[in-house]
Amino acid sequence: MFKSKLPNLGTTIFTTMSALAAEHGALNLSQGFPNFAADPELLRLLGEYSTHGFNQYAPMTGVRELREQLSLKTKKLYGAHYDSETEVTISSGATEAIFAAIAATVSAGDEVIVFEPAYDSYLPAIDLCGGIPVYITLHYPDFQIDWDLVKSKISPKTKMIIVNTPHNPTGSVFSENDINELAKIVADRDIYLVGDEVYEHIIFDGLSHQSLCTNSALKEKSFICGSFGKTFHITGWKIGYCFAPKELSVEFRKIHQYLTFSTFTPAQYALAKYLENENNYLSIPSFYQRKRDVFLESIAGSRFEFIPSKGSFFQNVSYANITDANDAEYAIQLTKTIGVASIPTSVFYHQKLDQKVLRFCFAKDDETLQKAGEILSKL
Ligand SMILES: Cc1ncc(COP(=O)(O)O)c(C=O)c1O
Hints:
This protein is α/β, with parallel strands linked by helices and 379 residues long. It folds into 2 domains: 13-31 and 283-377, Aspartate Aminotransferase, domain 1 (Alpha-Beta Complex), CATH 3.90.1150.10; 52-280, Aspartate Aminotransferase, domain 2. Helix content is 40%, strand content 14%. The chain is built from 15 helices and 12 strands. It is globular and about 55 Å long. It starts with 12 loop residues before the first helix and ends with a helix. The structure holds pyridoxal-5'-phosphate. Pyridoxal-5'-phosphate binds at residues 32, 93-95, 119, 164, 168, 196, 198, 227, 229, 235, 238, 240. This is Aminotransferase class I/II-fold pyridoxal phosphate-dependent enzyme.
């Protein structure tokens, strides 16, 4: 009999909930993807490059112009220098970058600190490398990290810490203090970091994104993974990237080279051109803050409780005032009975911690958000 290397993995909840939403004609606020179009200018650029012959393999490390634009942007926004030739790599979405970073670093028996709730791609990658996840549980409503607890979990076997800011599914973000505490913990230790920063431009209320690269000591140990899919409403293009110091990038590229080798060429040229206009990314925070507010206003009179999301395109709400049903059952019930799909946050915990909290994705057109809010307010 075939022996599975990941015996406990099945279909993701995102696939399940999206399928259920389609089956019941529900408004789909479950899976994290925008239901509106990307900027016509970006689409035009994609067409232009694909019709003008940019259709063969891109370089393994990514198209030079795109690496250069990313390097410039990161310098401008965070004051961090990455050499575009040796320290920036274009990947097939952030998912590939995260996998390659983990695979390049973690060996059998190494411990990896994972904060839960956690995005679902981290654990299978750790598992496949023979790594041992060491969980730190974050709790509703603010999901703050207790750095003393993190310190107590560090062992001689700790090889990696995975952090995600702005955070999926909670909408929390790192503060400068979080960055400083993390830097203290990894100082003088052989511990590396994955910074999952795919929502770097989706941050609200004037907060600034605290990238791991803002701290020079963290920068030296970090694989910072990003995603154009999230920033420019093109999740289907699957173009991401990884910033890492040269020594780490060399190892990262060894994995990337045989995982995908290279990534969709015309899109890389289109994105490089599009990034030349900084307004294209500087306008993203206010664009999504407005969407968050449309959703929050639409559920303001409901019995749900919430703290406004600080970043990402997700809003967590507690339904403890409405029912004591289990969150997975409740999410399914709402999809079937009132036609609004969400994600139960217990799925982001390995022990399926049920805090009576649902995650709604507000990367949707206003009409969908308002309609969903109207229905949810009747509960
Ligand atoms: C926290 C987080 N990291 C990584 C990804 C994956 O990004 P990509 O679609 O670029 O692979 C997602 C997508 O949902 C995400 O939410």
